[in-house]
Amino acid sequence: MLWECFAAGVTGMMLVLKGSFESSSQSSVGYAPHFSKINRRDGAGGWSPQVTDRQPWLQLDLRDRIEVTAISTQGRYGGSDWVSGYLLLFSDTGRAWKQYRQEDGRFVGNVNADGVVHHKLSHSIRSRFLRFVPLDWNPSGWVGLRVEVYGCAYKSDVADFDGRSSLLYRFNQKSMSTVKDVISLRFKSRQAEGVLLHGEGQRGDYITLELHRGKLALYLNLGELVTPGSGRVAVTLSSLLDDQHWHSVLIERFNKQVNLTVDTHTQHFRTKGEGDSLEVDYELSFGGIPLPGKPGTFLRKNFHGCMENLYYNGINIIDLAKRRKPQIYSVGNVTFSCSEPQLVSTTFLSSSSSFLSLPATPSASGGFAVRFQFRTWNPDGLLLSTRLALEPQRLELQISNSRLRLTHHMSAQQKEEVSTGHRVNDGLWHSAILSSRGLQVTMTLDNEPSSAIELGDHMEAKESLYFGGKDTMSCPSLNVSGCENPTVAFQGCMRLFSINSQPMDLNLVHQGRLGDYKELQFDTCSIQDRCLPNFCEHGGQCSQCWSRFYCDCSGTGYTGATCHNSIYEASCEAYRLTGSSSGLFSIDPDGSGPLAPTQVYCNMTENKVWTVVTHNSTDPVRVQGSTLQKPYIMKFNYSASPEQLMALVAGSEQCQQEVMYRCRKSRLFNTRDGSPLSWWVDQDGERRTYWGGFLPGVQQCSCSLEDNCMDMNYFCNCDADTDSWANDTGVLSYKEHLPVSEIVIGDTNRTGSEALYRIGSLRCYGDKSLWNAASFYQESSYLHFSTLQAELSADISFYFKTSAPSGVFLENLGLKDFIRVELSSPFAVTFSFDVGNGPVVLAIKSHVPLNDRQWHYVRAERSVKEASLQVDQMPLRFLEAPSEGLLRLRLNSQLFVGGTAGRQRGFLGCIRTLTINGVTFNLEERAKMTPGVSAGCPGHCSGSSSLCHNSGRCIEKNSGYVCDCSQSAYGGPSCKEEVSVSFDRESSVTYTFQEPFSVMQNRSFQASSVYRENSRARENIAFIFMTTQSPAMLLTVSTFSQQYIAVILARNGSLQIWYHLHVDRRPDVFSPRPTSLADGRLHRIRIHREGKDVYLQVSNGYIYKSVDPEVMQAGSKGFIGCLSSVQFNHMAPLKAALLNRGSSLVSVRGHLVESNCGAPADSTTSHPLSGKCCCCKTQSPLNNVSRHDSAVIGGLLLYFILIDCFGVNMKRVPDVTLFHCLSFSLSLFLPLSLTLLPHNGCPSDVFWGWGS
To answer: What structural domains and CATH numbers belong to the chain?
Structure first.
């Protein structure tokens, strides 16, 4: 490739001659486009279009393809006309255009008429034509524009492949073997399939670069044996590469390491195979894979398009072909200029109002035939509609549920339809043909078989054909059948319109000379792949529609809009604080960080909570016959990865690992020189020779540290080298060296010599992050840390307590961007940031003061999809990010905690457990060296000892503390006493909750206009139950809108979760495993749903997940039994009902006996878990709800009903009006009903909560 600049330096000003400009229109002769050169003052001082121009543009013809590196704009001289925002399009032909995309898609223009705004392009444009499309202009004036472009001349070697041709580069020798390859080229394609490059060798090596479904796929193998049926694995990158615009490709390989770059996206990978070299026999082919011995016959679909600047390891392939060098053999017709087909696209921009109408020209043969091509990401959209001559009949061709569907509407109630295709919203071009002949209408999609509808009369289209939508303004009345726009119009691209074999010229439509249109963008297809790059984290799968992308977090262990947030707690200590008991749990020590969750055992039976990680060899092992030259070696594989173990150990207060070591005539150290004969290896791979304690520099065993060795001449019992068994068991407690990764034993080869060892599990306790705190007592003081790394996502969480009315918790600034969390008033926490689209502010208002000197929890999150804020148990606040705009948060200053860079509005009080993107900040260490800040926080509620249990809240008092158990399902001084009730067959409790509307609504003030408010449906449920009866209903939640959630035991005792969130569909039922839970044992259930994703944890810590599971049928029955420790969100309704029996909010029916479900039962407090199965009379809480509807003004009305009955069969759950599900996104402020039906057993610790 040759570069030639017009002036010295990297860039030079291009000489744009008169006549190089064109425009969509001009106000008058003085406003003509040739006056639009920068600083030009003649004429009217610049270009301005007519005020009636619906889509104005200014175009430059650079005479040849140019490397454009920068652009400048200016308003119209001496006037009030300028452009403040615009798009930049480019084209080789002046017909098919592509938008140059910055991060936010648009360029910022001028703020006055004469100032010059210069933009250096982040990646250059190689094109002949440029088009400036004004989007915004001076509201007090009109569009006025003068422009200039900068860059260098661009020359290239081009080859055109017609889909039946290729170039073969033949080696000088039989084969070519390389350990390093660099292959570069640029291409533009007319099709989504085609081979760009191929080479292979007899050893099994191969390299293939091809387009597949619009993506670039690289197949590379270095000697790996490919078994029949195993297939080849490709690395794919980019998409939409069949857009007829140039794309650059670079392949760099050194040994097995490969970098594949397409345009601005790079993927690094390591290829498979035994060797490091690529061995290719005879030749490389470009543009296709010709079949040996059969010229013109190809194994795969050939490339159809143009390539330029094709280099293979420094060799210019196209240049050799142009000069007819003998190394190059041409197959078929390869030409050396790029043909430009006129495949001009039109973009339908709006999903509600876009349309294109074209006249239904008559056909000489009768009937009609319509052809066009479309591409989109949307699963639904109207493609074509027309009213027929016989009113009120009409035809509609649309995408419905990702299929193509043709509907013949004969009347308002009668229609006939057929469907074809699958996933036609895959972003690829699809061809649609709709034709009529006689009494039949035929629909054809691509090359699939046609589908037909029989008509009762000859079909004749009336007046116009509407593509993409309908013109509702032309309807004579809103009551006209078929005139209203459907819910979803087509949003995507169309091209190649043909009506009755006559091609439609859309230039005439654009000029107003043919048909009509609205919300269209001509001459370009503006589709973009919003999953490239993939913003879904932790392996989340990206899917998209036209304007947004979505992340499927199934099976990742993470949730949120971008799969950023872990669904697991960070430690066993954190699980204990939620009220959990001992068991297997998944923990995520780095939270939203890169490390995956890991499963551990949490031992909560002692005062300390121990985290236990096992490995592959926990049984005792006997060792004989080892020497120092041929030692015995055992490597330990833990249930967590080395990175996970390192994070766990680093975040724990203390870790230890027992090493049981017994020996007989087997020494640990050489008694002559003290050199080790056996040792173990730490987590970093370092050899360690101490066998107990926490002093790594001392080469001793535990007996030496405790002064009780059997022979005081030695530091270890084994070194006494006796014939009897000796014991050097010890506990390793220097946590920076743990866990033990390997043990080496080298002195068991003598007669009678042997050793017996066992390496115990890694055991850690404490969570250093939970109580890491700092106290700020000067408003001008702060802690500073390195710049926050949060370009695309950031989650910030911490606790605070203060008596000050306001103060900044943290702040990080950039040149213009910033992020800040602050207490803006005694009742409000504010989260604000700016990524370049303008400030975004989320705020949560509390109905109680937050400066009450008690701990409060704050969590703020920002991603490319949304921003959210949570304070304590108050509902989350969400704002959805705009689909277009800047994405990256660019910061360059230090992160300030507890204050600002200006030393103003500093925070006074305590902050603890500050965690950002999974990293906990060591506030205490930094506070020790900072004036005005001290490590730790005074008060009884600031230590690591758990004073209040089961989500109880520790409240500071002047002379001590008290536990606030109002938000816990338990009672007592420390929130540890169960609140339980035993029911007989006639008893029930109804409790009505009421909360202030302002608390439940909690709408943000000062929200940015580009972010829109959004509430994602989510629930959290947890409870413990015990029963021997099935089927049984455990819990239901319902709303007035005929929706419900039900957790039941099926007839076989298995757990089922029913979600009926869409009233027009059957319920979704999730049954995680067939094991019966009606076994008379306690089972703990935790359920979390976010959108479509359901996470379930049953008893032992295993997690199951479901997305829209298959509907199943189940029955349920009531019970006689006991219910304990019920919690709904942050309230405990059963406890409140028992404590407020005289209240008008409480209704008690029958005889209630306080019991103790969780403890061993006695005859006076609980019923036995045996007897007949019982069932429930149908009783609907909705009747009661309606009676109280008027009693609550603007608040949340909630019913909690405990029903116990006997002897009457209950209807199957889908038919019972009692259960109507809770959909938080729709019903947050509506009356709700929560129903827990006691089964014949003993549930306890029921918890329910929501996030938004």
So the answer is: 21-153 (2.60.120.260), 158-224+232-331 (2.60.120.200), 345-470+489-522 (2.60.120.200), 530-561 (2.10.25.10), 616-761 (2.60.120), 773-935 (2.60.120.200), 940-977 (2.10.25.10), 979-992+1016-1154 (2.60.120.200)
